[in-house]
Specification:
It is built from 14 helices and twelve strands. Strands 1, 2, 3, 4, 5, 6, 9 and 10 form an eight-stranded antiparallel beta sheet that branches. Strands 7-8 form a two-stranded antiparallel sheet.
């Protein structure tokens, strides 16, 4: 689900992709990571976000920490970054600060897209935006503790952002294929790699966004959804990518929370490469490839089910292919952009490790076979790798 941030006022106002730091179009990147707060003994979620975040010093470089819709979740947002090394350092720092703060309050942060086991339902909000969300979506959000990795990529101008959005649509399922990390739903193995994506699909307007003629068309569609009562306000949408409501960025909201730092950085550099490739294609006048909304939805569902294992869907060819082929197609498409930013070697090595060790979902299942303590230990440690 999209994040519903409550900004802790004294923290920095800059967010990933702020245009002030953009030396060239499509170069800035930033990451927002959502985490679960768990009881270290049982693995159940605990409602301690306010305690964990209270009293933390402001972060440098425009980074910030937030609570989420449910008080069982916290978020770490990097500042504006122009290279993967700086981004990685900020992701490591945000995770470490949250980990240390959680420990002081008898809890741990877990890098998982969904809760591991049943726990008490988190309390609802009765006021403010969170209160309106609870009132509007009711049972859909009562136990919604799903966590994702959101990537912001700088794009100069709203019209250009919509043109880029139209061109990244076919590749969003491939990003999910790499990131599945939520196989369990309150103690049950769902059989899916990303149960978070299945939960998110229940919301109106979820999934791959439709194509838009321009920014006015995008704004009009969001306004219609608000008028229909299915969105709380124009800042909300459930699409897997969108122009940011406040920033000169494209926001990718596809990935589950990454099990490791490097997997979070992988999502960021691939997302930036997609934007760079789209900008280059726009400049060259390359024709836009049409993709059916229904086929795109099928591709998202297949990616959520199997990740890099099993069968995926090629949204352009509209047919089943090995899931690994969708990733190979993505890499071939963005390779020139990755070469431009010097990220190709990192991406290749990251994909090699994923193929060898498995996705986060695969590793969660492997750890769970050894018992819940082993699973909790894996999800709450090793965040820096």
């Amino acid at each position: 689900m999209s994040r519903f941030p409550l900004r802790y006022g004294r923290f920095g106002d800059r967010r990933p992709g702020d245009e002030a730091a953009a030396p060239a179009s499509g170069l800035t990147i930033g990451v927002e990571e959502e985490f679960l707060l768990l009881d270290p003994g049982t693995g159940a979620t605990v409602s301690r976000a306010s305690e964990v975040l209270d009293g933390l010093a402001p972060l440098p470089d425009g980074a910030a920490l937030h609570r989420e819709l449910r008080p069982t979740q916290v978020e770490a947002a990097t500042g504006i970054c122009t290279d993967a090394a700086r981004l990685r350092a900020q992701v490591v720092r945000g995770r470490q600060i949250l980990r240390d703060a959680a420990a002081r309050h008898g809890t741990v942060i877990a890098a998982s897209g969904t809760p591991l086991c049943s726990g008490p339902l988190p309390p609802r909000d009765n006021e403010g935006r969170f209160g309106r969300i609870d009132a509007g979506y009711r049972g859909l959000v009562a136990d919604y503790e799903a966590c994702g990795t959101h990537v912001h990529v700088g794009v100069p101008g709203k019209e250009l952002a919509v043109q880029v959005l139209n061109r990244v649509r076919p590749w969003l399922p491939a990003l999910l294929t790499l990131s599945v990390n939520s196989p369990f739903d309150r103690g049950r193995d769902t059989g899916y790699g990303s149960w978070r994506m299945v939960l998110q699909s229940r919301f109106p307007g979820a999934g791959v966004p439709p194509p838009f003629d321009g920014f006015a068309g995008y704004e009009a569609e969001v306004a219609r959804l608000v008028d229909c009562g299915v969105l709380i306000d124009p800042a909300m949408s459930f699409w897997l990518a969108r122009p940011s409501a406040r920033l000169p960025t494209i926001e990718f909201r596809v990935a589950d929370t990454a099990l490791t730092v490097d997997e979070a950085v992988l999502q960021a550099v691939l997302s930036r490469a997609l934007v760079r490739r789209a900008l280059a294609d726009i400049e060259r006048g390359t024709a836009l490839v049409p993709v059916s909304g229904q086929i795109a939805a099928a591709a998202v569902w297949a990616a959520a089910r199997d990740g890099i294992d099993g069968v995926g869907v090629d949204p352009v060819a509209a047919k089943q292919v090995p899931a690994g082929q969708t990733v190979a197609n993505l890499l071939a498409y963005v390779r020139p952009a990755l070469e431009d930013t010097g990220d190709l070697g990192f991406v290749r090595e990251s994909l090699r490790r994923l193929t060898s060790a498995g996705t986060g979902a695969t590793r969660q299942r492997r750890a769970r076979a050894a018992g819940m303590p082993a699973l909790v230990a894996m999800l709450t440690g090793g965040h820096d790798g």
